[in-house]
Write a structure and sequence with these properties.
Blueprint lengths: L3 H9 L2 H4 L58 E2 L1 H10 L4 E5 L3 H7 L7 E2 L3 E3 L5 E2 L4 E2 L1 E3 L3 H11 L7 E5 L4 H12 L5 E4 L40
Parallel strand pairs: 1-9, 2-3, 2-8, 8-9
Antiparallel strand pairs: 4-7, 5-6
Length: 231
């Protein structure tokens, strides 16, 4: 039998709202603590998502198709095309996180459906040229994990959303995914072909990636997402 307080609460809930709620077995959690706005309970198990909310389905990239330098400990991979699809089809359930540097987003562009922008690497100051890599020296953002968690807390979404990490080509996002997993964020997918994609036979990044897959993007960084972090 339900506790008296729960029975009184149910009497006050509109019938239309109750019709959208799916209550599972009595052993799911010890208390009937329902948050009608978030459709959440003590463990997020007793009351399921609203019946009208589509179940999130992801066509993940098999491990065998992921190059070793793009693999993460969590082994959760997604293509840029699939990332674009689920970000479009499941708004509110998926969070797209751009982890490229601010210089990259300013000069290369950024998807216009990015939810969070927190760089994992930023140019070391003063600027230094690295001959081995043929690029400027980069260093890790020491506040990366904390800034990601803070940004997630500001979003009006689920407590544990599915996170999609986007970098240039998928290598950086794998490393960043491991950092987030170590901090307790486990539902983190890496976009294996990134924003610009891999380098093709002609030396250009035009074989895959968000831009080639037809994902929505603009030529400049989104001004309201510019990270305040600075190294």
């Amino acid at each position: 039998m339900l506790p008296r307080t729960t029975m009184l609460w149910l009497c006050l809930v509109p019938a239309s709202a109750l019709a959208q709620m799916q209550v599972v077995g009595d052993g799911a959690c010890p208390k009937f603590a329902v948050d009608i706005a978030a459709f959440a309970t003590c463990d997020g198990e007793r009351v399921a998502s609203p019946a009208g909310l589509p179940a999130l389905t992801i066509a993940a990239v098999p491990l065998a198709e992921v190059p070793p330098h793009k693999r993460s400990d969590g082994d959760l991979y997604i293509s840029a095309a699939e990332a674009h699809r689920i970000r479009r089809d499941y708004p509110g359930q998926v969070v797209l996180v751009d982890i490229r540097s601010r210089v990259e987003t300013a000069y290369v562009g950024q998807p216009d459906v990015v939810d969070i922008h927190v760089p994992y690497l930023e140019p070391a100051l003063p600027l230094q040229w690295t001959a081995a890599s043929g690029s400027i020296a980069m260093q890790r953002n020491p506040r990366f994990v904390d800034e990601i968690k803070a940004a997630l807390a500001r979003l009006d979404g689920p407590a544990e959303p599915t996170i999609l990490l986007l970098c240039r080509s998928g290598q950086r996002s794998a490393i960043a995914a491991d950092a987030l997993a170590a901090a307790g964020l486990t539902r983190v997918y890496t976009v294996v072909d990134g924003f610009e994609g891999d380098i093709g036979p002609d030396g250009r990044r035009n074989v895959n990636g968000w831009k080639v897959a037809g994902g929505r993007w603009q030529s400049r960084a989104l001004p309201h997402l510019t990270s305040a972090s600075a190294i």
